[in-house]
Amino acid sequence: MTNKTLIMPTAVSTAGSAAGVETEAAPVHGRVVKSKITRDLLTFLMVFGPGLIVMVADNDAGAVSTYSQAGAQYGTHLLWVVLLLLPVCYFIQEMVVRLGIATGKGHAAMIYQRFGKWWGLFSLVDLQLVNFLTLVTEFAAINLALSKMGVDPRYGVPLAAAGLIMLVLSGSYRRWERIVVFLCMLDFAWFAIAFRLGPPLGQIVKHALLPSMPAGGITPDLMFLVIAIVGTTIAPWQLFFQQSCIADKRLRFADLRWARLDTFLGACVTITAAVCMMIAGAASHAHGFRFTDPAQMAADIGTFAGTAMRDLILLMMINAAVLGTTAISLSSAWAYGEVRGWPHSLQLPWREARGFYALYLMSVAAAAGIVLIPRAPLQLIILGVQVLAGVILPSAIVFLQLLLNDKELLGEYANKPWNNWVNWTIIAVLFILSLILAAQVTAPNLFPST
Amino acid sequence: MTTRNDRYVVVHPLDDVLETKVDTEALGPMPMTRSVRYSLLSLRAYLILMVLLVVYHVVMLAR
Prior knowledge:
The structure holds two protein chains of two kinds. The N and C termini of chain A lie far apart (63 Å). Chain A has 19 helices and two strands. Chain A is 73% helix and 2% strand. Chain A has a single domain (49-446), classed as Amino acid/polyamine transporter I. By secondary structure, chain A is mainly alpha-helical. The longest helix of chain A has 34 residues, at 307-340. Chain B is built from two helices and two strands; from the N terminus they run E-E-H-H. In chain B, strands 1-2 form a two-stranded antiparallel sheet. In chain B, strand 1 (2-4) and strand 2 form a beta hairpin. Chain B starts with a strand and ends with a helix. At the A-B interface, strand 2, helix 1, helix 5, helix 6 and helix 17 of A face strand 2, helix 1 and helix 2 of B.
């Protein structure tokens, strides 16, 4: 590859940007390369980002808790459930990729424009509410992990919030993306944790590839943990986040195959990291510890694997919460900006997109503030997250499916019949699971616990 | 990406000319068949019911 930058002279835009960024008559900066392989690699690296970020950020604080709990209660028996979710994650997010590239607009804007105000408003309000409640749980996890590390959360939590706000205020999408991709790469530390703590490789492969039931068979507790795993692996904000992210990055039709690869690699990373979290939980269980929360699990593991391992797990927990916070807050800010018609791009400086940045800032600051209130009803908030996410997810995917069958909107990028078979099956399963979860949370006496 | 004398020019999406996308605002609301419209009405009823259940449960917990 020659390390040259070529500036092409004629670059006049014919379409306005949905995000409010104007690039008319701007010169086109390109890299000159000699081989096709280098061209493809460089193009992939330029497109790479939204798929990895949405997938890794999905392994947020709640996911760390759910996967490690599954490992602590059932060992490696539920690895096959996680592995089964790999194609589900990919198929759902791949639809978002096509929609984002074809329209250049976010998911909230699409629902508003194609299904009318009622559905647009419902989706937006539900998303904002469930996102905000999820943010509170992210900061609660940061609070918990910092306390276990001996850091006073009264200083640590505001510092984390300030860092998260600074992250987006640079007025550069690229800078934000590079920092967040670096944080995503830190997730590979879960591999080292699993390698150090894990059971024999043969057992992991066996339980990952051959469905097996834990001792005791199918119980309501097992069923609800499986539902929680599904719910934490596929979250409503992901649809909104990735589509808006693709629109903000202005991915082109030619980028579609690279964006698909980005999404697939992201799905592989997130599912493998989830497996590692489950293995960490299983290791604490194997040493006779009872699971209460992931921070306590880290402390328990520290007693037999050393304080360095304890601190590494706690740091990974904070990293998961930080990634979740920036992605979820951005999905809220992008969605609100799209529906209100405000400028809403990370490429814009603060003074040109005040509403967009203010919403991000307020979400982060308020969620961090609530966590620092003594005796805040965190349990009620976690419950709210579970139920509302369960309610919004199937309906959000129904809209996604309808939009992907909209030939007027997508033309050749619309779903093929096999896409529809796969997606309607996923939607049916998610509807049943969300109904069971919502019924369990709202009326716990319906299902006797074992 | 363009080719110039066996060389390839790779352009970052943010440095490229804006592509013309579908004009979604001009398309207006999605035309729906009767079955899709009824399905969405059922979905709306389900969501309203679920939200009411959640509100009821939160009120009970807060008491």
